[in-house]
C-alpha cells in the first residue's frame, strides 16, 4: 500500500503544481497572444500541456484505483479518491472552455477558464494534503 500511496501523493502534488503554474503564468499569458496567432499557439499549447499533465494524471488514477483495492476500509483512501474524481469533474468544464477559447474575441471565456482552473488547483492542493497524510498513515 505504501508504494501506491507514494505514487498517488506525488502525482497529485505534481498536478497541483501544474495547476498553480497554469493559474499564475500560463492562462494569464493567453491574453497576450496576438489574435492572428491564437489558433496556432493554442494548438501547440494543447499538445504540450497534454504531455505534461497526462502522465501524472494517469499515475494518480492508477494509484488511487490500487489504493481502493488494497485498502478499501481506509477513510483517507476514500477522501483521496473523491479528490481525484473532483479533479476530473472540474477539468471537464475547462476542456469545454478550451475548445472555444479565443481571448481576443471572447475575453470572458478566459476569465471563466481562470475561475475553473482555480477550483482545480484548490482541489488538487487539498488532494495533495490528503495524499501526504495517506503516505504518513501507510508508513506508520
Low-confidence stretches: none
C-alpha end-to-end distance: 12 Å
Shape: elongated
Q: Per DSSP, what share of the residues sits in E-state strands of 2 or more residues? A: under 5%
Major sheet summary line: none
What helical percentage do the residues reach?
over 70%
Number of helices: 4
What is the string of SSEs from the N terminus onward?
HHHH
Radius of gyration: 17 Å
pLDDT averaged over residues: 94
Oligomer: single chain
Structural class: mainly alpha
What's the number of extended β-strand segments? 0
Which SSEs are present, and which pair or pack?
Layout: H1 2-30, H2 38-70, H3 75-100, H4 107-139
Helix pairs in contact: 1-2, 1-4, 2-3, 3-4
Question: Keywords, please?
Answer:
140 residues, mainly alpha, 86% helix, elongated
Task: Provide a short characterization of the protein structure.
This protein is mainly α. Helices cover 86% and strands 0% of the residues. The model has no long low-confidence stretch (mean pLDDT 94).
Describe it.
- The structure is a single chain.
- Helix 3 (75-100) runs antiparallel to helix 4 (107-139).
- Helices cover 86% and strands 0% of the residues.
- It has helices at residues 2-30, 38-70, 75-100, 107-139.
- The chain contains 4 helices and no strands.
- This is DUF1772 domain-containing protein.
- It comes from Pseudonocardia tropica.
Amino acid at each position: 500500500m505504501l508504494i501506491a500511496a507514494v505514487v498517488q501523493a506525488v502525482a497529485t502534488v505534481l498536478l497541483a503544481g501544474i495547476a498553480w503554474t497554469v493559474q499564475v503564468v500560463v492562462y494569464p499569458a493567453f491574453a497576450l497572444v496576438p489574435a492572428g496567432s491564437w489558433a496556432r499557439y493554442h494548438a501547440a499549447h494543447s499538445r504540450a500541456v497534454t504531455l505534461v499533465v497526462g502522465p501524472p494524471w494517469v499515475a494518480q488514477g492508477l494509484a488511487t484505483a490500487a489504493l481502493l483495492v488494497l485498502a478499501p476500509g481506509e477513510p483517507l483512501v476514500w477522501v483521496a479518491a473523491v479528490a481525484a474524481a473532483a479533479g476530473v469533474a472540474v477539468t471537464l468544464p475547462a476542456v469545454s472552455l478550451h475548445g472555444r477559447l479565443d481571448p481576443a474575441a471572447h475575453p470572458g471565456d478566459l476569465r471563466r477558464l481562470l475561475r475553473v482552473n482555480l477550483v482545480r488547483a484548490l482541489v488538487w492542493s487539498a488532494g495533495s494534503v490528503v495524499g501526504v497524510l495517506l503516505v504518513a498513515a501507510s508508513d506508520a
